Amino acid sequence: MSKKLTSRSEDYSKWYNELVVKADLAENSAVRGCMVIKPYGYAIWEKMQAELDRMFKETGHQNAYFPLFVPKSLFEAEEKNAEGFAKECAVVTHYRLQNDPDKPGKLRVDPEAKLEEELVVRPTSEAIIWNTYRNWIQSYRDLPILINQWANVVRWEMRTRLFLRTAEFLWQEGHTAHETKAEALAEAKTMNNVYATFAEKFMAIPVVQGVKTESERFAGAVETYCIEALMQDGKALQAGTSHFLGQNFAKAFDVKYASKEGKQDYVWATSWGVSTRLMGALIMTHSDDNGLVLPPSLAPNQVVIVPIYKSDEDLDKITEVANGIMSDLRAKGISVKFDNRTTQRPGAKFAQHELQGVPLRIAIGPKDLANGTVELARRDTLTKSVVTLDYLTTTINDLLKEIQETLFNKALEFRDSHITEVETFEEFKDVLENKTGFISAHWDGTNETEEKIKELTKATIRCIPLEMNDEEGVCVYSGKPSKGRVLFAKAY
Amino acid sequence: MSKKLTSRSEDYSKWYNELVVKADLAENSAVRGCMVIKPYGYAIWEKMQAELDRMFKETGHQNAYFPLFVPKSLFEAEEKNAEGFAKECAVVTHYRLQNDPDKPGKLRVDPEAKLEEELVVRPTSEAIIWNTYRNWIQSYRDLPILINQWANVVRWEMRTRLFLRTAEFLWQEGHTAHETKAEALAEAKTMNNVYATFAEKFMAIPVVQGVKTESERFAGAVETYCIEALMQDGKALQAGTSHFLGQNFAKAFDVKYASKEGKQDYVWATSWGVSTRLMGALIMTHSDDNGLVLPPSLAPNQVVIVPIYKSDEDLDKITEVANGIMSDLRAKGISVKFDNRTTQRPGAKFAQHELQGVPLRIAIGPKDLANGTVELARRDTLTKSVVTLDYLTTTINDLLKEIQETLFNKALEFRDSHITEVETFEEFKDVLENKTGFISAHWDGTNETEEKIKELTKATIRCIPLEMNDEEGVCVYSGKPSKGRVLFAKAY
Lengths: 492, 492
Prior knowledge:
2 copies of one chain form a homodimer.
Chain A: H1 12-22, E1 26-28, E2 35-37, H2 39-58, E3 62-63, E4 69-71, H3 72-75, H4 79-85, E5 91-94, E6 97-99, E7 107-109, E8 114-121, H5 126-136, E9 145-154, E10 168-178, H6 181-201, E11 208-211, E12 223-230, E13 236-246, H7 248-252, E14 256-258, E15 264-266, E16 268-275, H8 277-286, E17 303-307, H9 312-331, E18 336-338, H10 346-355, E19 360-364, H11 366-371, E20 373-378, E21 383-388, H12 389-416, E22 419-421, H13 425-435, E23 438-442, H14 447-457, E24 460-465, E25 473-474, E26 481-482, E27 485-489
Parallel strand pairs in A: 3-9, 17-18, 17-19, 22-23
Antiparallel strand pairs in A: 1-2, 4-8, 5-8, 6-7, 9-10, 10-16, 11-12, 11-24, 12-13, 13-16, 14-15, 19-20, 20-21, 23-27, 24-27, 25-26
EC number (chains A, B): 6.1.1.15
Pfam family, one (chains A, B): ProRS-C_1
Catalytic activity (chains A, B): tRNA(Pro) + L-proline + ATP = L-prolyl-tRNA(Pro) + AMP + diphosphate
C-alpha cells in the first residue's frame, strides 16, 4: 500500500480515512461499525486519558465502574432517554451457544438459554448508575456524588466512520448527584470548562462553548452544554458535552435525599462525556497532505532520532551521541525514541515519522558526527535546521512549546476567519456553499425554523454561544424577532 | 448497617462478602452476576493497573483496543476455544428496541432488527484479535507483535461472587505473535514471571509458579502457566495465567509469515491475563476481622490524618500541623489524606479507616499540639505509638516499607506452613478436612486419576510447580508411578 495520501483538496473524506489507516491509528474490524484502535492510535488516546483523568481528579471526582448491561426495565425508566437511544441499542437476548444440530462444527444460540429480561448493551449509563445511586443516597451527607467512569459504549449507528462515529467507542462518562439545582448547574458548567481547557491547552483546538437547542439536546437532559470545534473542511465537530439533567433521572429512579432540615427532595444530576471521537477532531484540525500533525502535548514520541550510516562503526558513534541526547531530553521530561531499526532505510523512516506526526525529527549522519551537529526537522512547518549539540536540548524544549502554540494559533485563525455573520438567508446559503465554517445568524428560537433550515441546507444549530451578544435582530429565515445570534454549521 | 463484620472463624465466606460491601469496594448490581466497583475499590484497582501497565511496557508491550463483539463465525473458528466458552456466552441478536404495542410505555426488541449473524460479547479476545493479526502479519519483519488490551469481558457464570467470579469483569489480556516456538514459550514464561513479581512485590502475596494439567488448561492452549496463591481459609486462588497457544490460533485464522529465507509458516502465539479477581486475592490474603488490610504499595491513601478537637481554634492549629505533615510526606512520594469531615466524629473516622485498610493513621489532638507529637496507629498490627513531629516523616517512610514486608512474610509463613506433603490418600483426605492448604502429592499423570480425586474430595491439581523436585514416587490415589509431586487444593 502506497504511503502517499490523497490530498485534502481532492477529497477530504478520503484523505481522512487513508490517514487514519496509514498512520496506524485505527482500522475497521470484522464487526460491522466497530474499529480496532491500533497501538499508535491508542498511545495518543492514553495521553488524552491521562490528562483528562488528572483534571477530573483535581476537580474532586473519583473513578468507579458500573455494569456493561442495562436490564430493559431500567433502560426504559427515563422515557426521553430511552426514546433517544432505543433505535440504536445492541440487545443481549441469550446467554449460551450450543452445537448446531444441522451444521456440524458450527454453533448456534441455545434456544433454552433465553434471558427472562433482555439486556441492553449500554449506549450511555445514566439508567444503571441512577438505579445504583438510589441505594447510595439517603441524606445530604451522602452528597455530592462526583463519579467518572472510563468505559466502552455501543450505539448501533448505520453509517460509521473511524473514530468519528463507530458502533462501539471508548469514552468517559461523569455522573454526579447534588443537593441543589444551582450546584448541579455549576458542575455541568465546570466540566464543560474542563473540556474546553483540555481541548485548547492539550489538543491545541480552539472551541466555542455554548448550549444546545432543544432538538440537539441529550435525551433526558434539561440543558446540554457543549464545546464545538471547526475542522479544516469547514464542518463543525461536537467535541464534548456536559448535561444538566435536572431531576429527571432522580424522579425516574426515585432517588431522594433528606436535607439538613429533614425535608425529602429529589436529587439534582449532571452527566458529561468525551470519547475517542476526539481523535477525529485532533486529526482534522492539524494534519496535512503528508499525514498526521500532532501537538507535542499529546504525541507519544515528541522527538525521534534517525541514524544515517554506512558502517557499523558509524552506527556505534551515532548511538553514543543519540544516547546522550536521549538522556538530556528525558531529564527535561521530553519523550524521545531512537529509531535504530535495521529493517528500514532512513528515507522510509522519515516518511513514516512524517505520516505519524512526530513533532521533531533528529537525523544524525557522519558529517554531523564530525561537526558536533544534528539535523532537526519540524513536522508542522516541514522546515529543517542544523543545530549544534550544545544547544540541542534547549532548542528542542523551546520548539516543542512553540509548535504547541503555533498549532493552536493557526487553528484559531482558521476558525475565527470561518465565523461569518450573515443577515439574510441568501447570504446564509452562499456561505455554506462557498466559504463553509460557522455561520453566526439570528434565529427566532423555534424548533420549526431550526428544522426547516436543516432541511433546506443540512446546517444545524451547533450551539447558542455562552458569550452571546445581547444583540436583538430578526431571524435569518423567518424574519421573526431574535434575541441574539447562534452558530450554524454543517457538522460531523 | 452495622460496621462490625462477621468474624472469619465464624463464617469466612460471609466475612468476605460483608467486608467487600462495607469497606466500599464493590456491590452487586441490578444485572445478574455483574458488580458495581465502587470508588474506593476502583482506586485500588487503578493502582494495580498502573503498576502492571508499567511492567508490560517495560517488557516491550504496547496497548491497543479490539472490538467488544465477536461474530459467531469467528468465535467458532478455533474449536477448543469455542467449545470452552460457548456455554457461558452472552449473545447479541438484535440491534434495536421499539415501543411495545401491547404494553404502553414499555419497549421490546424490534423483531425486524435481527442481526444476520449473532455477536458474542467477548469472553476473551483471541478470536477477534487473531482475525485482525492475519492482516498485520506478512513477514518476519512484522514480528513479534506484543500487544496488551485493558478491557471488560463477559462470562455468564451461574454462581457469582464479588470480584472472584462475576459475569462481567475487568482485566488485561496480552496477545502476542512470534516467529518461533521458543520465542513464544519464552514470552509466556516471562509474562508469568511478571505476574509473580507483581503479586509478591506489590500485592505482598507469595505465589507458586507452575503449569496447569490438561484438564485445567485454557481452552485452546498448548500449555498454561499460572501463579497460584493461598487464601487464609486454606483454599487456593489462581491469580494469573499465561498461555502458550502454539500455532492453534494461527492455523484457525490462517496467520502465516514469510521467514528470512522466504519460507511460509504459521505464527506462534501467547496470551496472558489478570483480572479484578486479584482484588479478591488481595482481600483474602491480608485482611482481618476488623476489615481490609492493604499493602502500602496498593493503598489509595497510605496515611490518613484525623483531627481531634473541641474548638475551631484547635482545629485551625491542627490543620496547620497537618498541612506541614502532608507536604513533608508528599515530598517523599507518600500519599496522605486529611480527614477533616465535619459530618463524622473521630471514632467513626477511626472505624472507617480501619475497615478500609489505610496502613497508617495519624491522630492529632490538643495534647499533641502542646507536646509536638502525634499518635500513629498501624493498621496491620493494630498497634499505636506516640511520635514527635521531628521524626514523623522518617518513621512513616520506614514503617510503610516494614508493613509491606511484614504482610508478605506473614502470608509466606502461612502459605509455607500450609503446604503438606502426603504419601497416602488417607493423609490426603485428612489434610483437606483438618488442616487445608496445598497438598503436595504424587500423581500418575492421568486425567482419570485427577478427575476421580476431584470427585471424591473436591480438590483439584492447582499446578505442577515449575520448581518441581525430580523425585520419583507412586501416585497418592492409583499407586502407579509418578515423576514428581504436584499441588492439590480446593480452590476459588
